[in-house]
Amino acid sequence: MLLYIFLMQYYLMEFDKLLLKRYVLDNSTRYNGIPNLESILGRIVIDNPELKKEIKKLRKVLEKIISEVEEMKLEEQKEELEQLGGPIKKVHEEEKEMIPLLKVKHDFVVRFAPNPNGPLHLGNARQAVVNWLYRNIYKGTYILRYDDTDPKNKIPMKEAYKWILEDLEWLKIKPDKIYYSSKRLNIYYKYFRKLLELGKAYVCTCDREEFKKLREKSKPCPCRELSIRKQINRFEKMLNHNFKEGEAVGRIKTDLKDKNVSVRDWPALRIIDKPKHPLVKGKYVWPLLDFASAIDDHLMGVTHIIRGVDLQLSRNKQLYLYTYLRWKYPIIKLQGKFSVANAELSKTKMREGIENGIYTGYDDVRLPTIKSFRRRGYYPEALINMIKEIGPKIRDVTVSEEYIASFNRKLLDPLANRYFFVRDPVQIKIINPPKDTSVKLPLHPDYPDRGFRELKISSTFYISKEDFLNYRGKIVRLIGLYNIRLDRKAQFLGKQLLPYPKIQYVPEKGVDMKILLPDNTLARGLAEKDITKLKPKERIQLQRFGFVYLDVVRKDYIYGYYIHN
Asked: Under a CB-based contact definition with an 8 Å cutoff, are residues 252 and 291 in contact?
């Protein structure tokens, strides 16, 4: 293995084009013939860290090789990759291209802390999976903590607690421990009282706008200098609901000259007069996230936190609290913002969309929720593999639907048997056809051992409206049968296999089928009868249409979800 690494590094330093082409082909054949420059570069540099200084030169050479590979068909790429030695073995065999964390000496504890104001979406899933991968690498502890302490703006949903567990289970994640922040309110009160006693916190009753003006000028408000006894008395009044919403706020003392205004005497606790919480009643003082998570991370023994770049200010705030209480702050790893092109990742907006009738529910096929991916028939391994590929990069990442689909397609393509479906069917009749009464077609062209399906045929067929309009008057080949000049009365032109466009068809006796598309519209048409032998939750490929996840299968009707092409 060491000799292999040495030789690989030597040749790469010399920019051996055959070896670089092997890297490109290895990447491209894994993703349906589409090479990704950044992924290839990342793989090479991970295998050979010393090449970082040559990255510009390496990029130029790779760009040229990629342009050559893009001209090749997928089968040609696979063939050449085998000639060059096949897929490149990973130098690091732990988790795929995961970036190691620092200072892992003994215990390793991570937490995934979603707000249960809806099910998990793909952005949440990234956080959940990355933490789980690290937990497995370092044989640590994985905590699921429901950050459910905002019963006003991000109101928890009772059913979401269960949804999140179901989503995690689907993603092959089994939390070692589960906590509910809303059930720990007395713990937060205890530590805020302790901070008051230390003179490191106070209860502010200033007008909100007046406090804001003072803070911007780096000046303390009058409440800051009150005695500890008065502060504790005020806090008791908060807990007894003698103060109402907006009349008092619990604050942590910080440097009033901190360069970031939001860090200056940041709020830890606030009053909510009418909290809407599914699990907690009779509590009116609620912690803000930076305070609750800081307390919990310490008490739960969290050693490493993987958080978004947008939350890096949390560390600046929480360090004050950790210093006052003489605690050791966890190691932080930042990762960039994650988004899905042309998709909504805000749970609040999803909820509004559902309430306003824009979406049918959290499993609406237009939403990037885990519930939606499950409903559409995605494999969990596809999303896990995609998240592995992206890793916890610090730069922002935007993925397309096609990029997500490429990981699922790799798993699905060899498993899904092939069938025919015609959308918006148009009937045609073949003039003077052969006397064939049936046609045998392979269930999968790459796996002949799976057998065949047999279609009973006559001179009447149905084809899709799109094919009829595109090829009317032209010569086409009915897949597995013969050539015709397409029209409503189509002319038989022989069985010789010639390079004409191939179209699918359904014999005269087909089955009604509806398919829910990604834009929430229905594709209606006819399917071959053999599909009625299948069961719900099976995945198939409708040739020249796409992969479909079956939901309802009856003798006279089929309903399914479009997965992707």
From this structure: yes
